[in-house]
Amino acid sequence: DCLQVAGDAYSSLEKHQEAIRSYQEALDIYQRISAGRKQEWTLRDLAFQHGAAGNRAVALKYATEALAVAEKEADPFLLQDTLTTLASRYEEVGDFDLAKRYYERALGAIVGRNRALEANTLSRLTQLLLIVGDFEAALSYAERSRKLWEDSSDPLKKIEQEVLLASINADRRSPMRDSTAAEKSYKGALSELSSFKAENLAASTKHSVADLYVIEDRPEEAIAILEPLASKYEKSNETFGLAQVLLTLSEAYKKARRFPEARSALDRGGRLAQGLNDFYLTGRVEYHTASLLLAEGRARDAIPHYEQLTSVLERIRSDTGNQSKVALAA
Q1: What is the dihedral of CA 166, 168, 169, 174, to 10 degrees?
Q2: Residues 30, 35, 36, 38: what is their CA dihedral angle, to the nearest 10 degrees?
Q3: How many CA atoms lie within 13 A of 192 on its CB side?
Q4: Helices vs strands, H then E, count in the chain
Q5: What values do phi and psi take at 283, rounded to 5?
Q6: Cα three-residue angle 217-222-227, rounded to 5 degrees
Q7: What does the alpha-carbon distance between residue 179 and residue 67 come to, in Å, rounded to a whole number?
Q8: Which of 63, 140, 170, 296 could form a disulfide with 86 if both were Cys (CB 3.0 to 4.6 A apart)?
Q9: CB burial of residue 146 (10 Å; 0-12, 13-18, 19+)
Q10: What pLDDT tens digit does each residue of the chain (330 aa) get?
Q11: CA distance linking residue 69 with residue 85, whole number of Å
Q12: Rounded Cα gap, residues 247 and 265, in angstroms
C-alpha cells in the first residue's frame, strides 16, 4: 500500500515515470497475494499514467487487464468504473466505436442501481456522440440524464445538463441546430452559475458561447470572451484548457481578419498541444493552421498541414490496432 501511496504522490506532481515505477511494484505485490480489487485499481492507475506519458497502446493494455480483473470481482460498481475508464482510453485515442461500446456496457452495469452514476455515464455517452455527430442519440441520452437529475438537490448537476443540451443546439453539424436557443441556454446557465463557486463549469460554458459566436461570424464578441478566458487559464496553469481556448481564439482572430494575432494565438496553442501529446489538439492545430493559411491566400502552403492532419488520424488507427472513426471539430 505504501508503494500505491507513493505512486499517487508522484501522480499529483505529474511525475509519470516515477509514478509508473511505484504502481508497477505495487501491482507485482498485489498479483502475488491475489488482491483482486487492489490489482484492478493499480492497473487503472498504470493505464492513466501511461496515457498521460503518451504511451497510448500501453495504456490500453493496462485498462483492458483492469477490466478482466473487475469482471472476476462481480461488483457492478467496480465494473462500471473500470468500463468507463477503458471507454475513456479509447475515446482519447479516437476509437469512438469501441469507446461507445464500453460506455454502453458501463451503463448496463449500473442502470437502476445508482442514479448519479447512471446519469454521469449517460452524459459521457452524450458527449461522445456529439463528437461523432450522432445528434439524435445524443439528445436521447441527454434527456435521460436530465430526468435522472430532476430530483437532485445539487443545482450544479441540473445546470450541467442544460449546458449539455444547449451544445446539441449549438453544433454546426446538428440537424436540430438552433443557435438562438443555444445562446439563451448558455447565458441562462452562466447567470445561474454566478451564484456558485463553479469556475471550471463557468469557464467551459463561456468557451462554448465564444465558439458559438465564431460559428455565427461574430468574431469580436467571441474575442471579448476568449481573451480574458485565456488569461484565466494561464494564471491557473491549466494547460489543456489554455490550449483549447487559444485555438478557438486563433479562429476568431482569423474571422476578424486580425491575422498576426491569429498566428500568435495559434503558435502558442500549438506549442502547448505538442507538449500535451493529445491527438484532438494536434488535429485542431493542423486544421486551424491550414485554415489560416487559406485565409491569408496561401493555399499551396496549407496543403502540407491537411496532409499532416491525415497522418495524425492514421497514427491513431495504428496505435489502437482498430479502424477508428475520428471526427475533428473545425
Answers
A1: 170
A2: -60
A3: 18
A4: 16, 0
A5: -65, -40
A6: 150
A7: 41
A8: 63
A9: buried
A10: 788 989 999 998 889 999 999 999 999 999 998 888 899 999 999 999 998 887 888 999 999 999 999 999 889 999 999 999 999 988 887 788 999 999 999 999 999 999 999 999 999 999 999 988 899 999 999 999 999 998 888 889 999 999 999 999 999 889 989 999 999 999 999 999 998 989 999 999 999 999 999 999 999 999 999 999 999 999 999 999 999 999 999 999 999 999 999 999 999 999 999 888 777 788 889 989 999 999 999 989 988 988 887 776 665 555 444 433 333 333
A11: 13
A12: 7
Q: Which three cell numbers stand for residue 53?
A: 506519458
For residue 164, which phi and psi values (nearest 5 degrees)?
-65, -45
- Which of helix, strand or coil describes residue 167? helix
Cell for 232?
484565466
Q: Residue 60: exposed, middle, or buried by beta-carbon count in 10 A (0-12, 13-18, 19+)?
A: buried
Give me the count of residues in the chain.
330
Across the chain, where does the E strand assignment appear? none
Per-residue cell: 87: 471507454
Place of cell 458501463: 106
Angle between helices 199-215 and 239-255 (to 10 degrees): 20
* Residue 158 to residue 155: CA distance in whole angstroms: 5
Distance from first CA to last CA of the chain, Å, rounded? 45
